[in-house]
């Protein structure tokens, strides 16, 4: 039995840090777990151009702990007003590494998102030309569509046509939750990849809804049935470089999650590595963990792999019940009060 593993320092290819005072908590947590992180732009207001990204980058920098060389990789939020010039200017900044598409209204802070993809094809052509990846929250935005079918519907109606029309565009289908998404990614060319969250690898919709509703497992896209989870964990542990880490760690105050209308997002910045290790171990695939956490994402983005290492040890530990957040608020981590089997030394 493996009891200790020394692996490449992981990156996170999908994280939410929020803004301003929230950064006091979220940035040190991210820097503790990851060397680099793709920072989502769904702040209020969103990060829409080079100026926004540079200012946000500077605000994040102020909270990186001394001695840490954590690197935030910035993204732009695509809106109906995004132009090819905005994209080119952002890329020239050197700090913007991707552009995020939120179909309007699908998730937390997505009201400024996009309702019609076809109007943005000139923007996508420019991104393909300059090699800037498009990160997609892949859910249909029509509220009539069943919440469990929104990912597969989006893939059929929007994603397949987009990939066929512009096969040179690099696409990351973010936080995939279905067998349909795995099949799409496998069938697509090598410009298409996908991120997988710890919660979607470990939990299904029973975990969320059976025996009482668990607001801290509510995220979007919503957890699906077990057959989908199986397809996801098989993809993650297959050693196929198209599938890599993206925690989707998303801070929401405890009071906003434990509410009659609780908001979507799991906070996993400090527990995700342990969760991934556990998920891979269930599949007898610990030998595939390092590349998933530390190699494939960097390769996809055309960035060098990290040279520093971390050591994981088999050791039971229980994450804190909560972390303090903002003024008088708390963040409940994914895995709070549970015994996790792997610890980062
Ligand atoms: C994310 C958030 O809170 O910003 N929430 C979530 O449920 N995943 C947004 C997102 O990535 O959809
Ligand atoms: Zn997200």
From TrEMBL:
It comes from the Bacteria. Pathway: Pyrimidine metabolism; UMP biosynthesis via de novo pathway; (S)-dihydroorotate from bicarbonate: step 3/3. Zn(2+) 2 binds at residues 100, 137, 175. Keywords: Hydrolase, Metal-binding, Pyrimidine biosynthesis, Zinc. InterPro entries: Amidohydro-rel, DHOdimr, Dihydroorotase_CS, Metal_Hydrolase. The keyword Cell wall biogenesis/degradation does not apply. HAMAP family: PyrC_classII. Catalyzes the reversible cyclization of carbamoyl aspartate to dihydroorotate. This is Dihydroorotase.
């Amino acid at each position: 039995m493996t009891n200790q593993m020394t692996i490449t320092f992981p990156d996170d290819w999908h994280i939410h840090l929020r803004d301003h005072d929230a950064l006091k908590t979220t940035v040190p947590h991210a820097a503790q777990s990851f060397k680099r992180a793709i920072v989502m732009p769904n702040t209020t207001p969103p990060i829409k151009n080079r100026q926004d990204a540079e200012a946000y980058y500077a605000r994040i920098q102020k909270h990186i702990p001394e001695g840490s060389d954590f690197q935030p990789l910035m993204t732009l939020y695509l809106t109906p007003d995004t132009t090819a010039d905005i994209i080119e200017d952002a890329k020239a900044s050197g700090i913007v590494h991707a552009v995020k598409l939120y179909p309007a209204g699908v998730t937390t802070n997505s009201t400024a998102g996009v309702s019609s993809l076809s109007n943005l094809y000139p923007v996508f052509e420019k991104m393909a030309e300059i090699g800037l990846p498009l990160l997609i929250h892949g859910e249909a935005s029509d509220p009539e569509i069943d919440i469990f079918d929104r990912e597969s519907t989006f893939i059929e109606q929007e994603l397949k046509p987009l990939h066929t029309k512009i096969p040179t565009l690099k696409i990351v289908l973010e936080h995939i939750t279905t067998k349909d998404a795995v099949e799409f990614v496998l069938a697509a060319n090598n410009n298409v990849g996908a991120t997988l969250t710890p919660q979607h690898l470990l939990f299904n919709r029973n975990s969320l809804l059976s025996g009482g509703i668990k607001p801290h497992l509510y995220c979007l896209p919503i957890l699906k049935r077990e057959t989908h989870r199986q397809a996801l964990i098989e993809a993650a542990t297959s050693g196929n470089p198209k599938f890599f880490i993206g925690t989707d760690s998303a801070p929401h105050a405890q009071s906003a999650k434990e509410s009659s209308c609780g908001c979507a997002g799991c906070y996993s910045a400090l527990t995700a590595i342990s969760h991934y290790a556990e998920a891979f171990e269930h599949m007898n695939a610990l030998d595939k963990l390092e590349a998933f956490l530390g190699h494939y994402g960097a390769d996809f983005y055309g960035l060098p792999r990290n040279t520093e290492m971390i050591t994981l040890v088999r050791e039971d530990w229980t994450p804190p019940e909560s972390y303090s957040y903002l003024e008088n608020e708390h963040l409940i981590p994914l895995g709070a009060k549970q015994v996790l089997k792997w610890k980062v030394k």
